[in-house]
Amino acid sequence: MKKYIFIICMLMLATTVLAEDNITNTTEIIDQPVICSINQCDSSCVVCSDNKCHDSSFTCTESLGVSSISPEEIDIGKSQLNIQIVNNGNVDLNNVYAEVSGEGITMIDNLNIERLVVGDKDYSFVNINAEKSGNIDLAIKLYSDGRLIKKDVEQIKVIGQAVADKTETYNQTELMNKLNAAKEKYKQLDEDYQNKKSEDYILGRIEDVLKDANNYLKSAQFYMLDGDYKRGSVNLQLVEDSLSTIELELRDVKKKQVNLIDRIKSNLLYISSFTAGIISILTAYKLTTNYVNKKNLSDMHHKIKTTGTTTLSKGKELLLKKKEEEILEDNKKVKNDKDKKKK
Questions:
Q1: Looking at CB atoms within 10 Å, which of 15, 61, 177, 343 has the fewest?
Q2: CB neighbours (10 Å) of residue 275?
Q3: How confident is the model over 236-253, as pLDDT tens digits?
Q4: Which of these CATH numbers, 1.20.1260, 1.20.1270, 3.40.50, 2.40.128, describes 171-256?
């Protein structure tokens, strides 16, 4: 029997030691600093599309822009456009290339930029065929690894005799209906974006695309009101492309994963708020109790003082009355003594 008791005690001791070890290990894990570097990237760090590790407060921003296009003038027929692209974001981008389209412009092929680091510029070469002369608006789309990063509108001049120079007409009513539909769709997508943002979804570059869509939308409206339906139509097409991109990306967004450290911070904040509330209630209760006690003490003191004064007054009256009685008695005795002497 003693042997079994000894074994049970040893098991209980081992369980206690293991529990203490687990608590110690947990504390050590919580106290360990988060490391975000090339050699170590903890789970709470931010990893961008270039696979670089950043602090948890870092926001990955992919942004491209057209710095210049050369030549500014081309002849009708086949030509090469040299499009200088700049990386305006904070993430290095790979496989960067441009696609162009426009009235009478057909893209034949293009060459990409293998890598474009943050703040750097490089050329993407695009071979096109121009069939119409004049100042042509180019719709330019900039990509990285197949992802559409930026849409822009530039202009080049095409020189030469067009094979078939037709004056295009635009259905103003149809364009205005498309513009109003785009406005409504933009409003709905912006509301959806704001709701998902408040629910801690990972939204990536959707905010930047929304800003681009809003700018294209304003430009399209401006050109149409000014009677330039050609440019209005180009900007409206860019709006519709941007809204389609936003709609697709909003469907695939996911919520942020809350790690252990974030949960502990949240719980500590909740506990601190709760504790502060309890302390406030106890303090108010203590102050109220002290006030009531002081008031009762003041009332009692006043009562004692009043009662003492009344009692003292009554005592004085009794003493005076007794004194009068004694005087009367003495006078009575004196009178009796005089009467005896006369007899």
A1: 343
A2: 10
A3: 899 899 999 998 888 888
A4: 1.20.1270
User: Which has the closest alpha carbon to 247: 199, 198, 184, 200?
Assistant: 184
Could you tell me whether strands 147-159 and 73-75 are parallel, antiparallel, or unpaired per DSSP bridges? parallel
Whole-angstrom Cα distance, residue 144 to residue 100? 15
Strands 77-87 and 113-116: unpaired
**Domain 62-162 sits in CATH 2.60.40.10:** yes
What are the residues whose beta carbons fall under 8 Å from the beta carbon of 219, sequence distance 6 or more?
A: 153, 231, 232, 235
Closest to 181 measured CA to CA, from 210, 222, 234, 220? 220
Tally the C-alpha atoms within 13 A of residue 263's C-alpha that lie toward its C-beta.
6
Q: pTM here? A: 0.43
Give the other-Cβ count within 10 Å of 322's Cβ: 10
pLDDT value for 26: 47
Per DSSP, the three-state class of 248 is: helix
**What residue segments make up the domains of the chain, in order of their start?**
62-162, 171-256
